[in-house]
Amino acid sequence: MDMTDKEFARQMKLISRSDKSGLKNIYTEYAPLIYSIAFSTLKNKEQSEDITSDFFLRLWNKADTYKQGFSHKAWMTRIVRNMCLDLLRRDSRVDFSLDSQESFDVADESKGIEDAYAENVGFEEALSLLPEAERQVINLRFMSDMTIVEIATALSLPQGTVAWRLRNALQRLKNSVKEGELL
């Protein structure tokens, strides 16, 4: 099932009337996507599972506040990403700027986070230079351990497109390592 914005709005109306079938339909369609977004942000399986559960609980409790007219995928992505950033702020004492670019202002007692970030800066920087579509496929494939079929389903794309994006992204990353520089 490829849920349209209109179908999503119908499911949200069911939820707002306490009809669990609406939540079940949205969960079935989007749980892998929500988890992958959480995992690509948090890099932690347990926290990502918790955020995914909390996301659908929030959806159940706030269904009556949903306003149709925007891309439901973008709306859900924004919510889950904000939930993750809130968790990171609480747990890591990380200060994120308001311009949606994560900048780390780590407290002295959080030195471990700073060290981990510094070690991954090259890879993270290389990933950040990939086109968004390729970066998303890389994150879903390797961070969330999803198959091409699962990624295609989660993103509502043909499997060939997903495979092509994955191949291109891997080639760009391989070239950047071979050349000893970032893309």
Distinctive features:
mainly alpha, 183 residues, single chain
Topology summary:
Layout: H1 5-16, H2 20-42, H3 45-62, H4 72-92, H5 111-128, H6 132-143, H7 148-155, H8 159-178
Describe this structure as you would to a colleague.
The protein has helices at 5-16, 20-42, 45-62, 72-92, 111-128, 132-143, 148-155, 159-178. It is an all-alpha fold and 183 residues long. Helix 2 (20-42) runs antiparallel to helix 3, helix 2 crosses helix 4 (72-92) and helix 2 (20-42) packs across helix 7. The protein starts with a helix and ends in a 5-residue tail after the last helix. 24% of the residues are buried. The model is unreliable at 93-121 (pLDDT under 50).
Sheet bearing the most strands, described? none
Q: How are helices and strands ordered from N to C? A: HHHHHHHH
Quaternary class:
single chain
Shape: globular
Low-confidence stretches: 93-121
The class by helix and strand makeup works out as mainly alpha
User: Helix proportion of residues, in percent?
Assistant: over 70%
Rg (CA only): 18 Å
First and last CA, distance: 37 Å
> What percentage of amino acids are in beta strands?
under 5%
- The average pLDDT value, as a whole number, equals 77
Q: Tally of extended strands?
A: 0
Compute the number of helices: 8
Short summary:
This protein is mostly helical. The protein is built from eight helices and no strands.
